[in-house]
Amino acid sequence: MNNPTILVIGGTGMLGAPVAQQLKADGFTVRLLARNPEKARKMLGEGYEIISGEVADAKALRAALTGVDGVHISLKGGPTAADYERMDHLATRNIAQAARETGVGRVTLLSAYAVSAEKADTPESRSKFRGETALKASGVPFTIFRATWFMESLPLFVQGKSLSLIGDQIHSLHWVAASDYARMVSNSYQTDETLNKELYIFGPEAYTMGDAMKIYAEHAGVKVTLLSTQMLAVLGALTFNTEWKGMATLMKHYEKWGEDGSPDEANRLLGTPKITLKEWCQKKRR
Ligand SMILES: NC(=O)c1ccc[n+]([C@@H]2O[C@H](COP(=O)([O-])OP(=O)(O)OC[C@H]3O[C@@H](n4cnc5c(N)ncnc54)[C@H](OP(=O)(O)O)[C@@H]3O)[C@@H](O)[C@H]2O)c1
Questions:
Q1: Does the CB atom of residue 76 touch ligand 1 within 6 A?
Q2: Is the CB of 147 under 6 A from ligand 1?
Q3: Mind spelling out the 3-state secondary structure of 211-229?
Q4: What is the set of domains in the chain, with CATH numbers?
Q5: pTM to 2 decimals?
Q6: What's the pLDDT tens digit per position in 39-52?
């Protein structure tokens, strides 16, 4: 029998690439739907089936889904409300429906914590909630990964020599390394116990965003600077900077909502994440 084939959509992304690599390392045949096959090949190397196309192209999506056992969705929307809706909701809905029609065995989706009807108070969280809801309604077996903040996000807040802490981020967060998460996603394809579940992916230690940034800043040789969400929103409006406006709204959501759910079931079924923030920083420096 051939190895199961898993399609990764978003396999060139910060969080999709480690999943594609882990699945391949674990013996799956990995197919990618890539807008830029050359970029995918350069980034991931040989040994992947690559279908050229974008997720809104129904024909390319069907071709990518044909003959696969599972599909992992790791797309990113934003920063406008329309783009969150296009990627986090509509793309997820379309993939799930097409997966159901082509007889795909399961869909796994990277979502986030604080995604629920009660907490759908920003374009991102609303679209993610709608995407999760559409996946569940599609009838295809699913696993939703409600992940906390990834350690890989920390460098994204660096500009020059400064690391911006945006907003009053009071909540303790279990920062997780993408490689731990990728191993958990791959393991999820090796058991049926994960089907039709939302699993919370939390790392081994909790730090507020400010404390995590201090640790990363020390390793990266940068300084943490504070910026309120109001100030970023005003700067974004004055300079017509959609990214900044979107970031201000996103960080307001995380000022308000801390982690919800428990990682116990994910850890029991998929293995506990082990990499600490300090270990991750040291590895990154090497
Ligand atoms: N950062 C965190 O801490 C965190 C925590 C929880 C959840 N998440 C969620 O994780 C998800 C993935 O984030 P990320 O940082 O990995 O995003 P990313 O690096 O921007 O990756 C997005 C991927 O989607 C692909 N893509 C974009 N538009 C596409 C289209 N129209 N058709 C096909 N492929 C398309 C991109 O391909 P190209 O190479 O062609 O651009 C890329 O491979 C996001 O939804 C985010 O909200 C993040």
A1: yes
A2: yes
A3: HHHHHHHHHHCCEEEEECH
A4: 5-147+177-202+259-273 (3.40.50.720)
A5: 0.97
A6: 999 999 999 999 99
